Amino acid sequence: MANVDAAVVAPSDEQRLAELGYKQELSRTWSGFQNFAISFTIISILAGCFTTYGQAWNNGGPIAISWGWPLISIPILIIGFCMSELVSAYPTAGGIYWWASKLGGAGWGWFTGWFNLIGLVAVTASVDYGAATFLNLTLGAFDFNLFNGVSGDFLSGTFWLFLIVLGFHALVNIAGSHLVARINGISVWWHVAGVAVILLVLIFVPDHHASANFVFTERFNNSGFSAGGTGTAMFWFYVLPLGFLLTQYTITGFDSCAHISEETHGASDAAAKGVWRSIFYSAIFGWLVLLAITFAATNVDAINKAAAGGEFVSVAILDQALSTGWLKVILVISTVGQLFCGAACLTSASRMCYAFSRDGAVPGWRIWSKVNTKRVPQNAVLFMAFWAAIITVPAYFPNASGVPVAFYAVVSIAVIGLYIAYVIPIFLRWRMGDAFEPGPWNLGNKYKWMCLFSTVWVAIITVIFILPTTPAGVPWNDEFDWNAVNYAPLVTGGVIAAVGIWWLVSAKHTFTGPRHTIAELDAELGERDFPADGPPPTTAPAGA
Q1: What predicted TM-score, i.e. pTM, was given to this entire model?
Q2: Sign of torsion over alpha carbons 380, 382, 383, 389
Q3: What digits encode the pLDDT tens for the residues 61-96?
Q4: For the residues 518-531, what does the mean pLDDT come to?
Q5: 8 Å CB contact between 392 and 406
Q6: How far separated are the first and last CA of the chain, in Å rounded?
Q7: How far is CA 51 from CA 55, 69, 276, 520, in A?
């Protein structure tokens, strides 16, 4: 994609933003390609395809990967098309919750915003934890075992490395929006080149490859459920769907195109295309990577033994198929890609926090809605990084099997939070029907079935990903262990219950949806000194 001439599009971008009620406070320096790049980076097939590969391998086996990935990519792309139409109509940093407020009212916007915030915190946490895990593995491959030696345990050591990675990403984001945009541009090419290298290595280096019959028909059940059976109803309707977390988690975070729309030239068109294109290209390249890894899986017994000991399945496959030198090459490529991804996730999370705070929905909203001299929401960056660290604390405590259950729980929180937030405005747009005023990129009449399908799909996956992922996580089982619990429903449900009570008791009287900051900022000059956690001025929602 070619860069858009800022001199030509900036006035229309700012005019459209003013029509939606906001001043141009953030720096509009991102091109359409860079907008696409942040979602492509957050999706990061070098992250999810490696870190959650074992979820599909153990819950379904090769068929959950070879067939599961392309089949699950289709409904995700449909969701992306629906979101593209919305961001084209409403290109604001608030993105999803702004759409919900506009289409359904303040209450819908309130809950959508909190689901989105939970999901963005969790996706930042999960990506940075995965990056820390692979960085720890990579350092170990080069005989630098500092983060194992400090604690004597890989999972605990990885947690400390995770905090360092998270802090580094916070510093990168605070350094400036233009720097982050450039990093995301580099990240796209790193992902494209990295995928090419990985494919070439896995095609030509291994001495043997698995058969097509193995890759496209073999089934595994290493979950512990149903006594390992692969022909039971339990396998097809419980175990195998758990394996779909690989696809549903990897291809997420594409709402970042909306969160960065106030910093993008020609946002009504560029951000809309960025959403669906990031999904489409990630689905294609990700499938190629997953097939290459699965074709390299020839020593199944050794792989399963390593996985039972807590090793990442993708790494176990590479370790069996490649020499130490080539293993190091792929580990470095994947780890750097994941580090790019983590930085982009924190960018998206901070912009959502900034926008939601700007409209008075977050405690301490005046603090998190400030921008520094570089026009970066520095406080929001630090706030999101802090909560990403907090929800990952259970990962510090190892369990008997060594399996990173806490990591998969955070992954589930990300999927549940983000996809519920995605689908609420999609449902509201469907409910509004032809009264909706579309932007330059729209679905036409296709919205009627696409929006309804998206709503049903998200309802299904929400149920799937709150389920226990191991028998030890089922409360009434004899082997029940709190360290094996999928705490996704506890965290997500707990936060939503708290903000629901908050809404009923107080917020519904003060939160009226997106604020018209042009009028408010003009009125606030030289006056009002509200406490940091006090209520924002009550104003009419945008579009009222």
Answers
A1: 0.84
A2: positive
A3: 999 999 999 999 999 999 999 999 999 988 887 678
A4: 48
A5: yes
A6: 37
A7: 9, 15, 23, 45
